[in-house]
Amino acid sequence: MRYRTKLLIAACLLLAMSLSAAAFSYWGVTQSHRYLIRSRIAHEQLERQLQLSRHSQQLFKAWTDTLLTGLSDRPLGEAYLKKVIESDLSALEDLSRRELAIVQDEEHRAELAEVRRLEAIRKEYRRVLDQLSKVEQLRSRGRPDIAWQNLVDLLRGGIDRELNELIEVALADETAEVLRIDAAATQLLTRLERISTIHAILAVLITLALAFVLIRGLRAPLAALLDGTRKLAEGDLSYRIAVRGKDEFAELGRSFNSMAADLQDHQKALQDARDNLESIVEERTEELRFANDSLRKIDETRRAFFADISHELRTPLTVIRGEGEIALRGRNKRIPEYKHSIERIVEQAKHLSVLVGDLLFIARQGAGAAKLKIKPVDLTELVESVVGDAKIIAMNKDVGIEFANDTPHEVIDGDPARLRQLLLIVLDNAVRYSNAKGKVDVGLSRENGTVTIKVADQGVGIPQEDMENIFERFRRAGNAAEANEEGLGLGLPVARAIVQAHGGTIEVQSKVGEGTIILVSLPEKVGGSQA
Length: 531
What we know:
single chain; 12 helices; 71% helix
């Protein structure tokens, strides 16, 4: 048996003992609390029954004395006793309801009988009071002889005999109930003590047995592992541990033997490697030289990138600074002059913001940290909208843009703003470098879960020697400046960054003098970073 299984069994046994002890303790506390409440209620009921019996006897005696003597100003008169008896009856009824709420099903019927007996006592008590009240009314109306005769008849008939019998039965039942509850509570405590003792003995025995089994299973394999470790530390790599069984210690022993064998092999390999150290050092030196050359090229690219950024940022910053100085120079300038300067500053600031934003997006995409706001995008509708915007730009160069209106709606997951920026860059380049009277064709197609946007122009084209550099920042083809002076060389790098952020590809096919075709392939689902 695996040692993990032994530990699991031991843990389960200890957990079972703990849970059983907790359950037993909870049951014992609950039962003790219930018996405590029952005992307290039963003793209160018995005390109230005794008070009710004593007060009822005092009441009838006081009333009889009043009818016989005509005196009603005694300290324990009938008015006070009636109030006390009503209080006793109300308290008994409240105690009965409380007891009825906590008794078990087998005691429920007996408690209901007790409630009905209290109702009978109250009913009989009121009946007796009514008869005595009639006698009192006759005496107060000036007919004492009739009142006296009725009182004598009531006394001879045992006016309070039935009430006393009901109260005596209630007293007897309450006394028996108190004795029964006390006996049950004593029996419960005895049982709890006996079960607790047995449970404690079992817990000690099981714990000792588990400790004995676990320690016995640990002693021999640990000693073998310690011996093996000591031998290995002394340099004896040929030492092997005798492995028996299939538990974790057996696996550890096999792993130890395997480690010792590996150490032997490594020691031999290390000896062999010393003979070939010079050749290995030469190879590593060559690799370091190659890595150094790569780092030098990367550093040159970084320097060129910062030089380009400095050059491109210098112009808008110079304009902003110049316009600010012009606005601050002099005191009596007109408002239109200030407005003109501020408009120039805002225009250059917007240009600078767009430039910095594009550079940041390219840099983040290069670092794999570009964020997109992904949502379902109707690419056909988006292309149609951007084509409509591009037609306004194309009108100035007399260039036509064609997009088939019957193109089926292609829906993908993407960032609508970035996709619009991508399409505007591609269409703006197509229009900008097209010849007058030229035409730009835009098409959409789907294949194997990928949607491809095709933009073909009839412009100046891109020389073959510039094709490798068209996606580098601030790089333009040799004939681009001749066709159009505007442009920073950031359009296609930004377009590629957007496409790569969507998990797609961008391809450029071009011939000088014939035109350029740009193919943008986008997957239906984006696997990149999302905002």
